[in-house]
Amino acid sequence: MKMLTNDHIAELKEIVQTGRVLIDESDRYSYSFDASFGTYLPDAVVQTKSVEELAKIVKLANREGIPVYPRGQSTSLSGGPLPVHGGVVLDLSVMDDVLEIYEEDLVAVVSVGVLTSAIHKAAEEKGLIYPPDPSSSNVSTIGGNLAENAGGPRGLKYGVTKDYVIGLEVITPEGEIIQTGGRTVKNVTGYDLTKLIVGSEGTLGIITNAVLRLLPKPPATATLMAVFSNLVDAGRAITKILTSGILPSKMELMDRASIIAVENYHPMGLPTEAEAIILLELDGHPLAIKEEIAKAELLCFTTGASNVKIPKDDLEKEEIWKARKLVSPAIVRIKPTKISEDATVPRSKIPEMCERLQQIKEKYKVNLVVFGHIGDGNLHPNIICDKNDVEEMSRVEKAVTEIFTTAVELGGTLSGEHGIGHMKAPFMEMELGKAGLDMMKRIKAVWDPNNIMNPGKIFPKPGQKLELK
What percent of the chain has pLDDT over 90? Predict the structure, then answer.
């Protein structure tokens, strides 16, 4: 990787006529970190709304071997946008001008800097929904969601980001602007480059525009909160509900540590004596969900629930879901550092994964909080710690490693929605095998022969280990 020279900076400034090139260290510093670990200072930061200017910058970078790092709002929990080799950060959050809803086609056309919550709002004003709903939707850009293939609570019923992307505008690593897919729901012309690029974490190109599929908004919803005195029983209840013919739109889990943290942070009458609570939402026709919510209630009681609450109105529903949304801000009050993971297992392995997480918590004496999108096996084991405590961080690293190992052993995956970035790269071969990882490397080498596009992500360096520093 080449360092950025004064000549390169002069050329960047010549290219960027409609935006800014930031070179002062004070300006660059805020681009050196995200919501994960590590600080890496870029050599320069570019802000421009012009796709043509971005393409010229990439051509310069490819010619000179300079790394480029596309970046949105940097809510990444895996180090996705971090400039680990210096180079140029491309701040795509400024590209927020296009948000168009086409009702008859059931699609939205958006530029990558648009906030995901803005897409939700625009779709709902037309009686439609954009289903992917990551918890960071109020602050994350759609471009970051596309790069990481983000999910969210509604992933159980509706899937993740890639399931709603039918077209892209992309700048290739060689600085060419290409279109993939289009505005038709069916499109089987050639290789599906759209699906390949979504979730590639900026390693294959820079997404600048997207066509997203929308759905009609369901006419009604119903919510349930079930209280359990045993975390494993909660896991069994989830399996029971999902195999009964009921498909919730959301199914979330909070363990005792997260319940207590939320109640201390914002008292709302949560059952702090419980080991776990399940939050469930159904959507669809009012008569159908009335029958299904009653069936779900019965199934919870038969698998060990001590109490089940079904809210009577929208205000009570909002209060229940508020508890889940408050978990992240609540737990960081315990200690200053939060390690957020998203190991995901098959649904049938949810009870066993819950049990293994409790064993890991005791084994390494770590403050492990478990919550997440339990209906699709996408758990969020969070470890609350202090990064300045060297001895504690050593135990945390071992615990995180065992969480990943356990998920893979149970037939699961390293990441359900946070991506790999540079933090999970050391574990890629464990999940994919040597041949599987090599195939991905070969695709990367063909697309990006000079390895300028978000280098240092996904693929591990020889001997690389997890380091939470």
Answer: 80
Q: What is the dihedral of CA 98, 104, 106, 110, to 10 degrees?
A: -10
The owner of tokens 């071969």 is 429
The dihedral sign for the CA sequence 417, 180, 164, 211? positive
- Alpha-carbon distance 354 to 351, whole Å? 5
Q: Which residue has the tokens 């690389």?
A: 464
pTM over 0.90: yes
How many Cα atoms within 13 Å fall on the side-chain side of residue 288? Answer: 13
Sign, CA torsion 14/19/24/30: negative
Dihedral sign computed on CA atoms, order 69, 70, 76, 78: negative
Which tokens sit at 418?
A: 């946070």
The structural domains of the chain, ordered by start, are: 6-94 (3.30.43.10), 99-216 (3.30.465.10), 220-409 (3.40.462.10)
Q: Whole-angstrom Cα distance, residue 311 to residue 306?
A: 17
Q: What value does the mean pLDDT take over residues 262-275?
A: 94
Closest CA to 308 of 226, 223, 222, 231: 226
Would you give the DSSP letter of residue 414?
S
Reported as a single tens digit per residue, the pLDDT across 125-143 is 999 999 999 988 999 999 9
CA distances to 91, 172, 450 from 68, in Å:
11, 12, 11
Which has the closest alpha carbon to 152: 398, 382, 333, 375?
Answer: 375
